[in-house]
Amino acid sequence: MELLCRVGTLTWSQSISPLHCSSRPFSRYDTKRFGVFCASDQAQKANQMTVSVTGATGFIGRRLVRRLQADNHQVHVLTRSISKAKLIFPDNGFPGIVIAEEPEWKDCIQGSTAVVNLAGLSISTRWSPEIKKEIKQSRIRVTSKVVDLINESPEEVRPSVLVSATAVGYYGTSETKVFDEDSPAGNDYLAEVCREWEATALRVNKDVRLARIRIGVVLGKDGGALAKMIPIFMMFAGGPLGSGQQWFSWIHLEDIVNLIYEALTNPSYQGVINGTAPNPVRLAEMCEHLGNVLGRPSWLPVPDFALKAVLGEGASVVLEGQRVMPARAKELGFPFKYRYVKDALKAILS
After folding, report:
1. Which residue has the higher pLDDT, 257 or 3?
2. How many angstroms separate the CA atoms of 274 and 322, rounded?
3. Who's near 147: CB < 8 A, 6+ residues apart?
4. Phi, psi at residue 203, to the nearest 5°?
5. Alpha-carbon span 318 to 159, nearest angstrom
6. Does residue 58 come out as left (phi exceeding 0), alpha (psi in the -120 to 50 range) or beta?
7. CA–CA distance, 49 with 39 (Å, rounded to integer)
8. What is the mean pLDDT of residues 134-155?
């Protein structure tokens, strides 16, 4: 095997065994004076990705950026607010990160290995007609822009992978049905949003591997649904929302980040993949486990009318649910770290 090795400023070519970087042993003096860069360094560089991420300042995006940087990948944060992004990703904590506003997205996407699309306005708010329009448009607008920029990229600098988020809201709601990736779309507002969101992603060039991750309720301490539930339980006011019989299809933050990461690197990850844990629970059970972990009661139900008074039509997100199974992820052998909600809550809150 022929290998070009560098020791300090010296360069030479020699035939070596695949398991060794040099046929002659280095002295103690050599190792102190010179850095050695050989096959392992070349392999590491070959595996490095450049990933452009929309929605990087969000709950999932922040953790994904940290994971990518920890593994020495180059990250481009595609944002509409550079000031917000710089607060979340300061130079001293995220050296080498590229933060780009929309006029610069084209340059970032061209030459990227992959793009992760997580952008979208939060649905955890009171829905007015204007908010409902923005919930849908925020997803479709950014996805459309990303897809157009990928498609317009010259082939030699076009990203080879697009991982685009969507949501389990695609399936509609039910207390009795079980949904997997082959289940049809529902017919409510969130299902409509997800259908159009995914249809936009599907316009990407057919040479680009596309993974659509339908994400469930993400559990983590610093954001998402759990961050809003914990203070209520700590005030001894926690309990099921509505009937408590609605299904709660959840996933730990670490697992959803790992699933997205795997979709970036593993060519088998394409098409629709449900981003949910293998064991969804009824909301009443979720609340019981949360109360036990926090050492707080979980018997005080929040009635439907109270939620509707606060969230209006948006209350349907928590008053209705769906039992979603990650059939494709299990088929691919994805190693869920947190398969049961009790274990996930203990890990988050310990």
Report:
1. 257
2. 12
3. 162, 200, 201, 203, 204
4. -80, -5
5. 37
6. beta
7. 18
8. 96
Percent of the chain with pLDDT over 70: 79
Give the separation between CA 350 and CA 348, rounded to whole angstroms. Answer: 6
* pLDDT score for 334: 98
> How far apart, in whole angstroms, are the C-alpha atoms of residue 306 and residue 308?
5
- Tokens read off for 320: 């209705």
Q: What angle do CA 170, 278, 264 make, to 5 degrees?
A: 70
Residue whose tokens read 């599907």: 202
Please check whether residue 5 is in contact with residue 22, taking contact to mean a CB–CB distance below 8 angstroms.
Answer: yes
Residue that the structure tokens 């591997």 belong to = 209
Place of tokens 């793009």: 115
Contact 242, 318 (CB under 8 A): yes
Q: Which residues neighbour 319 within 8 Å (Cβ) at sequence distance 6 or greater? A: 241, 242, 243, 246, 304, 307, 308
The reported pTM is 0.83
